[in-house]
Amino acid sequence: MTTRSRRPSSSLKRRTGFRRPRKTFVIYCEGRRTEPEYLEELKRDPEVRDAAAVDLRIQSSVKSSTPLALVQLAIEAKDRNTREQGEVDEFWCVFDVEWPQHHPGLIRAVETAQRAGISLAISNPCFEIWLVWHFRDHTSFIDTAGASRLRRACDGQDNKGVSSVHYMPHKHDASRRAKLVEERHRQNDVSFPNDNPSSGMHRLVDAVTSKGT
């Protein structure tokens, strides 16, 4: 996917004389429009905004949208945050598996993130399956093109734009469906990256709506 750069701040350190009671998330995501727009809508959602415990900072990759590149950016930022005693509590990467051709370096990206303490929200085959689950069940294998078509059929939008009125009221429905499918994969002993369909976005939604607990 083509990305639009959103360059991170040079410092993640807390500003002098300013006490921030909010839990801070930095999220690196692939995608030029769909994923960043969804995350921006999530940031503005009253359940997140009014919790006074979350400050999302969404960064599209400034180098590449491959999973490994995103993870490396997150690790660099996390290390800088540690050195500077910064304000960031959690670093996340949001990316896709893609079918029929997986992203290069996918397994290495996951293993690298896990070793470094970077949280992941991976969608299989793509972010669109997470969007579909806001509206309906889908439990069978689907490729990237099929998920995109199904998403358009669900929300009636021909482009990649994300409208809060379509999605935010149903984010917990999507989480419920994602968890059910995840449990089915577990029971069937199906593991990543063969867990199609799936999405770890429910973990990110749970994290930012947990009021910091």
Write a structural description.
- By secondary structure, the chain is of the alpha/beta class.
- The chain has one domain (24-209).
- It is 42% helix and 14% strand.
- The chain is built from 9 helices and 5 strands; from the N terminus they run E-H-H-E-H-E-H-E-H-H-H-H-E-H.
- It has helices at 34-44, 46-49, 67-83, 106-116, 127-132, 144-155, 164-167, 171-187, 201-208; strands spanning 23-29, 54-60, 90-96, 119-124, 198-199.
- A 5-stranded mixed β-sheet has the order 2-1-3-4-5, with helices on both faces.
- Helix 8 (171-187) crosses helix 9.
- The protein is globular.
- It starts with 22 loop residues before the first strand and ends in a 5-residue tail after the last helix.
- It holds the Pfam family RloB.
- InterPro entries: RloB (IPR025591).
- This is RloB-like protein.
Number of helices: 9
What is the total tally of β strands?
5
**Which parts are unreliable, with pLDDT below 50 for 5 consecutive residues or more?**
1-8
Taking all Cα atoms into account, the compactness measure Rg is 17 Å
Largest sheet: 5 strands, mixed
Helix content: 40-55%
Q: How confident is the prediction overall: mean pLDDT? A: 86
Question: Judging from the principal axes of the Cα atoms, what is the shape?
Answer: globular
Q: Report the structural category.
A: alpha/beta
Largest sheet strand order: 2-1-3-4-5
Order of helices and strands: EHHEHEHEHHHHEH
The share of residues in extended strands comes to 5-15%
